[in-house]
Amino acid sequence: MTAVSVRVPAKVNLQLGVGPIRDDGYHDLVSVFHAVSLFDEVTAAPAGRLEVTVESAPYSRVAVDGVPTGADNLAARAALLVAARLGVEPAVALRIRKAIPVAGGMAGGSADAAAALVACARLWDDRDDPALTRDDLLDLASDLGSDVPFALLGGTAIGVGRGERLTPALARGVFHWVFATADGGLSTPAVYAECDRIRAADSRPGTRPQVSEDLMAALATGDAKNLGAALVNDLQPAALKLRPSLRRTLAAGRDLGAIGALVSGSGPTCAFLASNDEHAAELAADLDGAGVAETIVRASGPVPGATVV
Ligand code: ATP
């Protein structure tokens, strides 16, 4: 058995429609996920026992201090699930190299969980007729969290339910993005709670979300300008309330010519759409100069989900 490395992308939600809070505490979501070329890498190697190390990927400046290295790391939870399903000891060293911002609204932890599922399944179940099928991995992924199945799948996909029931979306072409990361993360549960508070104060509980037809049409035709105009995130008002400085970041991106701008997921990363690669390079340089973010990174999408490298 030799080590297995898996590369896994970040996501941005092109649409995040949040319905009223349900009795079980979750919200009904409509989420259009889009995988972008900002990757974590998880390597699984045989070891005496389960161990996790987390480091920032070469050339990336991701702060990894807040990431747990015990059994509460999502990648470790994924390894434990795979071991339990296969009836083997979870004797694996997981090395996580992060380029996806931590608690940044780009589903970095979920990505690592998806990567660990694939890496451990390959490490312990590398046969022509594996005991764990792709569908089994997708089931384990949805047990781990609503964003984990998409990190396995990648591409562009519509998620409903808690976001975990996925259908690939018809999408043409490549979209060019610039991401502005913030110093310090935002807690996803805190952002949902703020969203509920804002809606309660407005006496508007939120309506059942629908997939945006304008967004689907823009994706199907590969029209970046229309896509930029159709981007929507129902969590954005809550993220802006909790982190008012993001208003300035979004405004700077728009003023500098982004054709779309929104908070990524629960934030605080802001996503800016450019019309092409060259425009993305200019926008990234200008945003860097504006000093409105911790770091500026470029990425394109869609890209495939967790892949053995
Ligand atoms: P989402 O977009 O799915 O809401 P996020 O991108 O905002 O998530 P994550 O980077 O996934 O946030 O991290 C959320 C929290 O999960 C972190 O603060 C950290 O404590 C915990 N965590 C557990 N495992 C990991 C991991 N492998 N990488 C990053 N964070 C992890």
TrEMBL record:
Domain GHMP kinase C-terminal: 215-288
Pathway named in the protein's UniProt entry: Isoprenoid biosynthesis; isopentenyl diphosphate biosynthesis via DXP pathway; isopentenyl diphosphate from 1-deoxy-D-xylulose 5-phosphate: step 3/6
Domain GHMP kinase N-terminal: 73-155
UniProt cross-references to Pfam families, sorted A to Z: GHMP_kinases_C (PF08544), GHMP_kinases_N (PF00288)
Keyword Nucleus applies: no
Residues that, per the record, bind ATP: P101, V102, A103, G104, G105, M106, A107, G108, G109, S110, A111
Transmembrane stretches, start-end: none
Catalyzed chemical reaction(s): 4-CDP-2-C-methyl-D-erythritol + ATP = 4-CDP-2-C-methyl-D-erythritol 2-phosphate + ADP + H(+)
Signal peptide residues on this chain, from the entry's feature table: none
InterPro entries in the cross-refs: GHMP_kinase_C_dom (IPR013750), GHMP_kinase_C_sf (IPR036554), GHMP_kinase_N_dom (IPR006204), IspE (IPR004424), Ribosomal_Su5_D2-typ_SF (IPR020568), Ribsml_uS5_D2-typ_fold_subgr (IPR014721)
Function of the molecule: Catalyzes the phosphorylation of the position 2 hydroxy group of 4-diphosphocytidyl-2C-methyl-D-erythritol.
Record-given protein name: 4-diphosphocytidyl-2-C-methyl-D-erythritol kinase
Originating organism: Actinomadura graeca
Native organism taxonomy: Bacteria, Bacillati, Actinomycetota, Actinomycetes, Streptosporangiales
Gene name for this UniProt entry: ispE
